[in-house]
Specification:
- The radius of gyration is 25 Å and the shape is globular.
- The strands form 7 sheets. An 8-stranded parallel barrel has the order 1-2-5-11-12-13-14-17, surrounded by 4 helices. It has a 6-stranded antiparallel beta sheet with strand order 18-19-20-25-22-23.
- The chain is α/β, with parallel strands linked by helices and 661 residues long.
- Helix 3 runs antiparallel to helix 4, helix 3 packs antiparallel against helix 14 and helix 21 packs parallel to helix 23.
- Bound molecules: alpha-D-glucopyranose (2 copies).
- The site of one alpha-D-glucopyranose (GLC) has 9 residues, from loops.
């Protein structure tokens, strides 16, 4: 056994050469990424005797996985493989031929790409049913579908955290179908131009995963797969600095085993955190990751990324090692499934969210700040915090993108930065309390019908659950409700990256409180916004005298316009001061067509707003409003009805010729 120490580091080439597989493609990528992976292992596991073994075994797993990778997926890899930063940085400018000229845009930067999210069981019964719904996905214009977790869990009939307690990453929940059905569904989706997103739930497994059982039984090789403690001494010390995530389920971050020992469980008592300080865990999970990749998945959603590394005396969230681990998984992927990208699920402080986004870690990330502040602006009718976030927290490195959503399957947490809020004289703590009151409907005059999730009386913390329509006022029959549903999506569709629709929201689906009658689900309020397929609403989706039809007509228009407007993709966003209360404004330019700009104006207020001609005088007077397709005369100012928005294709004033109204 060799220690992964400085001597070993010197022998880098010898080690790599011994691992070459003879497959030209694989060896080329191993050659390109091995030094990076080795360096990461050295930093993570340099102190351990078994580090180098785990590295070697990881490469062997990767080689087997590449060997088994279907030809169709290998061709996709070839189309999608993107130069990594290290690669680009490692040469002088002459050797940058990979990216020279017009930098190649990653596939997910396409303005035609619109995403959807659904639970297979709730939306379509099972995987066969899902395949039958593909025409509906196409009708809506989806090019991305996140299938919520669908692997084997301990108690699918009762409580398995909606599939996030995985007992086997290689077996599908039997009620949904088989692993072959999943493979076939993914292939069908791909055939229809739809990429598949699956979760890589890698922070924890369920308590019934075979590794978990073996760890508890003390089976050699598995004792250290999880974090198990004989008594409360260390758990007590850890808990002094670690946040409680699901206090309704259990206090703190540990649960007691029947034999009296304690095991780290950040989320529910049946979700046990893996111990990544053990390199064997990395190796094992790299194998599961590549298995998922070989199913034909395009995007792996990296569940709960912030929590994967723990250290005493710290919050054990977003530690430097969490980033090293992601980089190591990224390197393995780059070697054995280079067409696949990671989506970061870090619902944390905005400074921490962006740290996960790079070509070396996750190329995609949810944008929880924009999501939360869209709701904040709807409640307050004041979009200044949202505008500030777009101005200072929107930029991302080249080759990466946000996934912009209005709401997901999880709760809404108010993850803004207190100092940002203080610039407007807003007290973060107070404001979060107000937003929780507002969205749970207890604030007088609120249009929202949400419920609180994980209210923690000890800390005063809580988050909000509810469907988009219920939170926006449709359920309360507030006259502005339907417009807020559209406005929220109009923001997500115009700030770049991948816009995401939680399927059902595009027909204004309401909360379903019936989860409370199901003892298995009653304790988790997030089920209120995970209802079953709304057959009735879909049946009237073409009738715009109905709420479903009205919302759907607008949603389809948003999709259509976004798909024909390259300016709305990419990451470039320029602030614009509309100098009009209640109005959010920003400009988007396309990476491919920098000469045109789309000016987005959105009125969050309850009154008409007029953006004056002088504010718009930097643009040529004639602009096209893309949603209506009509010409607008900026010299007369732009009037926006309450909760309405405009996407204006504008030109610089200097560019204008004789054309005038
Ligand atoms: C992620 C999921 C959430 C789940 C948690 C634990 O945050 O989105 O639904 O409860 O991870 O896996
Ligand atoms: C997961 C949980 C969410 C929690 C978050 C903390 O997303 O579902 O409730 O706020 O993790 O990072």
């Amino acid at each position: 056994m060799t220690a992964l120490n400085a001597d070993a580091a010197r022998d880098l080439e010898t080690i790599r050469d011994a691992l070459l597989s003879g497959d030209r493609e694989f060896d080329r990528r191993l050659d390109e990424h091995f030094a990076r992976l080795h360096g990461l292992f050295f930093r993570l596991y340099g102190e351990r005797l078994d580090g180098l073994d785990a590295l070697r075994d990881t490469i062997l797993v990767a080689a087997d996985s590449w060997d088994a990778r279907p030809t169709a997926l290998r061709s996709r890899d070839a189309e999608r493989e993107l130069p990594s930063e290290t690669h680009a940085d490692s040469g002088t400018s002459d050797t940058l031929s990979v990216t020279s000229g017009a930098a190649r845009q990653p596939w997910f930067a396409d303005n035609r790409l619109i995403g959807g999210v659904a639970y297979v069981d709730r939306y379509a019964g099972d995987l066969a049913g899902l395949r039958e719904r593909i025409p509906d996905f196409r009708e809506l214009g989806l090019g991305w579908l996140h299938l919520m977790p669908l692997f084997r869990t301990p108690a699918p009939e009762s409580d398995d955290d909606g599939g996030y307690a995985v007992s086997s990453y290689r077996e599908v929940d039997a009620r949904l179908g088989t692993i072959d059905d999943l493979r076939a569904a993914i292939a069908d989706l791909h055939e229809s131009g739809i990429s598949t997103v699956l979760d890589f739930v890698f922070n924890h497994t369920s308590n019934e995963h075979e590794w978990a059982q073996k760890a508890v039984a003390g089976e050699p090789g598995f004792e250290d797969f999880y974090l198990i403690f004989d008594d409360r001494e260390l758990p007590d010390r850890y808990e002094q600095t670690v946040r409680e995530i699901f206090p309704d389920d259990h206090p703190g971050s540990f649960v007691q085993l029947p034999d009296g020992r304690w095991i780290w469980s950040t989320f529910h008592h049946y979700q046990w955190d893996l111990n990544y300080a053990n390199p064997a865990v990395f190796r094992a999970m790299a194998g599961e990751m590549l298995f998922l990749a070989n199913l034909g998945v395009d995007v792996l959603r990296m569940d709960a990324v912030a929590f994967i590394w723990k250290r005493l005396g710290t919050p054990s969230e977003s530690l430097p090692e969490a980033h090293l681990l992601l980089q190591a998984f990224n390197a393995v992927l780059a070697i054995a499934a280079p067409g696949v990208v990671f989506l970061s699920e870090a619902i944390v402080h905005p400074d921490e969210v962006v740290d996960y986004v790079s070509t070396e870690e996750c190329r995609l990330s949810y944008n929880p700040l924009q999501m939360a502040l869209t709701w904040e602006a709807l409640a307050t009718r004041d979009p200044r915090m949202l505008g500030q976030a777009l101005e200072r927290r929107h930029a991302l490195p080249a080759g990466t993108a946000w996934v912009n959503y209005v709401r997901g399957h999880d709760d809404i947490g108010w993850t803004f930065d207190d100092a940002d809020a203080a610039e407007f004289g807003i007290d973060g703590r107070e404001h979060r309390r107000f937003l929780n009151d507002f969205y749970s409907g207890s604030f007088e005059g609120s249009f929202a019908r949400g419920v609180l999730f994980q209210e923690n009386p000890r800390t005063g913390d809580a988050r909000v659950a509810g469907t988009t329509a219920s939170l926006a006022g449709v359920e309360a029959r507030d006259p502005g409700g339907v417009e807020r549903v559209v406005l929220a999506h109009a923001i997500a569709f115009s700030t770049g990256g991948v816009p995401l629709i939680y399927l059902g929201d595009e027909v204004g689906q309401l909360n379903d409180a019936s989860y409370a009658d199901d003892p298995a689900l009653a304790a988790d309020a997030r089920w209120i916004h995970r209802p079953a397929y709304p057959a009735e609403a879909y049946a009237t989706r073409d009738d715009d005298r109905t709420v479903a039809g009205w919302i759907n007509r607008w949603m389809r228009r948003l999709v259509e316009v976004r798909q024909t407007t390259p300016e709305l993709a990419g990451t470039t966003l320029l602030p614009f001061d509309a100098r009009t209360p209640h109005v959010l404004a920003f400009q988007r330019t396309s990476d491919d067509a920098p000469e045109t700009t789309v000016l987005v104006l959105a009125n969050f207020g309850d009154e008409d707003a007029v953006i004056g001609a002088e504010v718009l005088s930097g643009f040529a007077p004639i602009a096209t409003e893309l949603i209506t397709g009509r010409l607008a005369n900026l010299a007369q100012g732009i009037a926006l009805a309450p909760r309405h928005f405009a996407w204006l294709r504008v030109h610089p004033a200097s560019a204008v010729g004789p054309e005038r109204f």
